[in-house]
Amino acid sequence: MVCAVRIAQLANFIGPASGGVRTAVAAMGRGYADAGVERLLVVPGPADGVEETDAGTVVSVRAPRVGGGYRLIVEPWRVVDALERFAPTSVELHDKTTLLPVAMWARRQGVATVLLSHERLSDMLAMRTGLDTSARAPIALLNRVVVRSVDRLVVTSGYAEREFRSVAASARCPVTRVPLGVDLETFRPVLARQRDTGPRDDGVLRLVHVGRLSREKSPHLAVATAVELHRRGVPVRLDVYGEGPHLDELRAVAGSAPVTFHGFVAGRDALRRRIADADVALSVCPGETFGLAVLEALACGTPVVTADRGGARELVDVTSGGWAAPYPAALADAVLDLAARPREHLRAGARRRAEHYPWSAATEAMLAVHGEVSGLTNRTRVSA
Asked: Which of 50, 63, 133 is nearest to 98 (CA)?
């Protein structure tokens, strides 16, 4: 018997123009389609709509704005309508809260569900609100509900896995670690520079930070690190690329230090050139479950300084960057350590590190997960 693989991807908190979830959903969805899988993507939008693309069918569900350019599907039964028409063999959730009713529908219908967790809610809320423990009890309860509602939980790092280890075991919900990937063709180094060590001829150490300017992403820490270097008398410049709700706070942190906020950069190649032109990338959030911005910098041949905890730390090794406690003084020390090392060796090491994470590997692993949970492994032929 030949069965078609039909994967429905559902995403709710997805950036309007960029962001990690958008990038991951698009890259894996393209990989599914290239493998011959029938793919449906359901996302929030300003109006209901259906678009046929070469990577599958995209269904937009009318959803209100909730701030920051985001829209949120608040009527999950309308997602169910799209799923009933598509008849998936498995459903891939990219949201662990608002779309859980869809997982309950899938269980009643005998449709397998896979949840890909993109954040540790307790740490994310702590960084956004400054409250360390107040939300931990309700989040633990939510996690217990999550692991009892899906057939497989996918995490992207050891840091992400630790959030669920005990509750998943008690619920007998299998957990699979699947690192995300990077577009190695788009994000690539520029021509090698002539010098092996030290900053450019103008003596300025160029830093770059790319990401959403929101507290839970810790851009304040990146800016404060540049301020600390400036305070020490280091000729430094930080270029910040991205938009978000806390830009005014970041400008206040920067003060008179040489920090430039460029806003959103349209075009991945334009962003690549800016990342590759830097001496060091600052991606210092201690609560990232993975760190696509880290991989994109490494792929450009730009060494990365990150926090000594979180998923991003797992991506950086001694050949490709450095790490330190998430405080400006410690991170500034890590930056200076990298600046003193042979530049081209670091750049080559950064690129080699990124090459361990092609999107093809992530897609292949996710297809294996879908095959296992839907019972199609070894009895399904994916059409070429």
From this structure: 63
